[in-house]
Amino acid sequence: MRNEMTLSFVAIEENEALARMALTCFITPLDPTLEEISEFKTIVSEAVTNSIIHGYNCDGESLVTIHAQIDGQKVSMTVEDHGEGIFDIEQAMEPMFTTKPLMERSGMGFTIMESFSDHLSVESTPGNGTIVRFEKMFSPVTEASRMR
Amino acid sequence: MADIIQIDDIVVVTLAGELDNLEANKIRSTISSSIFTGTVKAVIWNLSKLGFMDSAGIGLILGRMRDLAPYKGETFILNPSPTMEKIFSFSGLASNIRHGSVDSVLGEIGGVLHEK
What we know:
The complex is a heterodimer of chains A (148) and B (116).
Chain A: E1 2-10, H1 15-27, H2 34-55, E2 63-71, E3 74-81, H3 89-92, H4 109-116, E4 119-125, E5 129-137, H5 143-147
Antiparallel strand pairs in A: 1-2, 2-3, 3-5, 4-5
Helix pairs in contact in A: 1-2, 2-4
Chain B: E1 2-7, E2 10-15, E3 17-19, H1 21-35, E4 42-46, E5 50-53, H2 55-68, E6 74-78, H3 82-90, E7 97-98, H4 102-115
Parallel strand pairs in B: 2-4, 3-5, 4-6, 6-7
Antiparallel strand pairs in B: 1-2
């Protein structure tokens, strides 16, 4: 199947759950396994949290935009903000690196996004914002599971 | 949602619903204060009823491990889902994971503390 969606919301922490829910509904027609759903939800949550907390410092005004697309069994998604940006992407992607240790951010966001997706790339300009792109392949629905 | 009970020197935190950044911020201080009440020897995080967790859960648990450090307290992560188990493994917490009942972990802690 083919489908496409865009969702924008202001940078408040409550909208992390909104993004997870909306995107989970969006991929439901692919008949994902429980583990595929939960990995996908985690990727969405990490990317959106980064934009809300790091990009915009939870300012409650600026917009985070998610664009997602389904092509067959592949889901492609971008999470975009026009916030602070990342000064050193390589360092930001290191496990356990965080600029907000006092907020108990674990620094595991990018490691998780990388591990749970099939392709991840990050584009960022300090002062101009960040775009995280990822792709995830979902297993095709087998005839056996269709019969159930 | 966090349900916290104390059995002797052991704090059992049962989490339900979705543990993200918002939820972690809501429950952090309650869990911390239960650790600071005395000499807590172990914290068991029972995740059997937890539907979702992202890296905020890692931050929450690592933070409480720091709270416990002065008491040399142990941390056990009970019954995480397969996805959560992967997240804990990425974060170096695989050896803290247990599967089974709260009682089975209490039994193990009894043994561990006895050996000290």
